[in-house]
């Protein structure tokens, strides 16, 4: 059993610093609840706003579809061993149209049947594994999978977003929200 060395329990909008409240309130309005991750990030309004801003920017401007983003996020979160994000994004990926077989394959670290999604998720894992030092065959396979070279920057942005959330969850031991419990992942 591990012992927590710091206390970063999820904050409600009422408990959060004033600069964090608008993000928490907007999230609760959009989804009907505030994910515990955001409640933890609320301890640092800068971290919370960074997370929300990057998420919003990806939603509006990414070369990747919502489904592709969720597939990449799952691959990244599995690579980082984040139990919270794998569960949460298994639900989000299903809502974005990714089928259960693909979600289960990503959660298990297996290859995907869809060549485009396989190229994307293999590239995303490689970016994490190599800390961005991706060259040659791995980059060529990503482009050969049907992606513009500029989409590699969107993958890097997803890695940055998930690094923020995955590492936060590791340190805070963020409790899994009940809404994600059916997709619990233990690595």
Percent of residues in helical segments? 55-70%
Which structural class matches the secondary elements? mainly alpha
Number of strands: 0
CATH superfamily of the domain at 62-183: AhpD-like
**Unreliable segments of 5+ consecutive residues:** none
Distance between the termini: 16 Å
Quote the beta fraction.
under 5%
Oligomeric status: single chain
Q: Count up the helices.
A: 9
Summarize the structure.
This protein has nine helices and no strands. The chain has 187 residues and is mainly α.
From the structure above, extract its key features.
187 residues, mainly alpha, AhpD-like, 9 helices
Notes on the protein architecture:
- With 187 residues, the protein is an all-alpha fold.
- The protein has a domain at 62-183: AhpD-like, CATH 1.20.1290.10.
- Helix content is 62%, strand content 0%.
- It contains 9 helices and no strands.
- It has helices at residues 21-31, 36-41, 45-61, 66-79, 83-95, 100-108, 115-129, 136-144, 151-172.
- Helix 3 (45-61) runs antiparallel to helix 9, helix 4 (66-79) packs parallel to helix 6 (100-108) and helix 7 (115-129) crosses helix 9.
- The longest helix is centred in the last third of the chain and has 22 residues, at 151-172.
- The mean pLDDT is 96.
């Amino acid at each position: 059993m591990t012992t927590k060395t710091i206390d970063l329990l999820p904050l409600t909008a009422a408990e959060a610093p004033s600069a964090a409240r608008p993000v928490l309130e907007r999230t609760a309005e959009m989804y009907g609840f505030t994910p515990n991750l955001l409640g933890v990030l609320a301890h640092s309004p800068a971290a919370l706003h960074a997370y929300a801003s990057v998420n919003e920017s990806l939603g509006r401007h990414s070369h990747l579809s919502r489904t592709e983003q969720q597939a990449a996020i799952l691959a990244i979160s599995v690579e980082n061993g984040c139990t919270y994000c794998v569960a949460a994004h298994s639900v989000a990926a299903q809502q974005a149209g990714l089928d259960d077989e693909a979600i289960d394959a990503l959660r298990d670290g297996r290859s995907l049947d869809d060549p485009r999604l396989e190229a994307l998720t293999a590239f995303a894992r490689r970016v994490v594994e190599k800390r961005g030092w991706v060259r040659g065959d791995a980059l060529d396979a990503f482009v050969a999978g049907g992606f513009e070279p500029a989409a590699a920057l969107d993958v890097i942005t997803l890695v940055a977003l998930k690094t923020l959330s995955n590492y936060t969850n590791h340190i805070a031991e963020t409790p899994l929200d009940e809404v994600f419990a059916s997709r619990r992942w233990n690595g």
